[in-house]
Amino acid sequence: MFYVFIGITIVSDLFMDSIEVITAQTRMVPYIDNFGKDLHYEETVWNPTVANLTLMALGSSAPEILLSVYETIVTLETTPGILGPSTIVGSAAFNLLIITAVSICSVDEVKKVDDVGVFVITSIASLLAYIWMYVCL
After folding, report:
1. Domain ranges within the chain, ordered by starting residue
2. Which of 2, 46, 68, 112 could link 51 by a cystine bridge, Cβ 3.0 to 4.6 Å?
3. Hey, what's the torsion of the CAs at 85, 64, 54, 48, to 10 degrees?
């Protein structure tokens, strides 16, 4: 069992290194200056903020996903263990509730949210997932 955690650590470390490689990609973009001369400038392919947040979320969830997959494979012919549902409930609840609360509390000034559609969809999907898991368990 100890070797599984070492393996997950190594895979997670490699994954985070690959995030740096992916987000460091650039491309040369041609443009014409005011004097009609053809020039090129280098721009990043990825929006660094969006890429880092998206890949960080995937990278930080990778260990728990791998542990859940490992437990599923080990208990394939028997009664499923508690690690899978606990991982889902713990991670999803933390992401939905705690991270949202910290994000809201960390802003000093009052801000208006123009579009709450993404949060509403995420909340509804999370609630449906919790209800479905409760029914299954």
Report:
1. 1-78, 82-137
2. 46
3. 160
Q: Report the alpha-carbon distance of residue 87 to residue 103 in Å, rounded.
A: 22
Q: How far is 96 from 88, CA to CA, in rounded Å?
A: 12
Crossing angle (nearest 10°) for helices 48-74 and 2-23:
160
The three-state (H, E, C) secondary structure of the chain, written as one string: CHHHHHHHHHHHHHHHHHHHHHHCCEEEEEEECCCCCEEEEEEECCCHHHHHHHHHHHHHHHHHHHHHHHHHHHCCCCCCCCHHHHHHHHHHHHHHHHHHHHHHHCCCCCCCCCCCHHHHHHHHHHHHHHHHHHHHC
Beta bridge partners of 58: none
pLDDT tens-digit map of 4-62: 778 777 877 787 787 778 778 888 989 888 888 888 888 888 776 766 666 666 666 76
> Which pair of tokens denotes residue 15?
């994954």
Burial (0-12, 13-18, 19+ Cβ within 10 Å), 53:
exposed
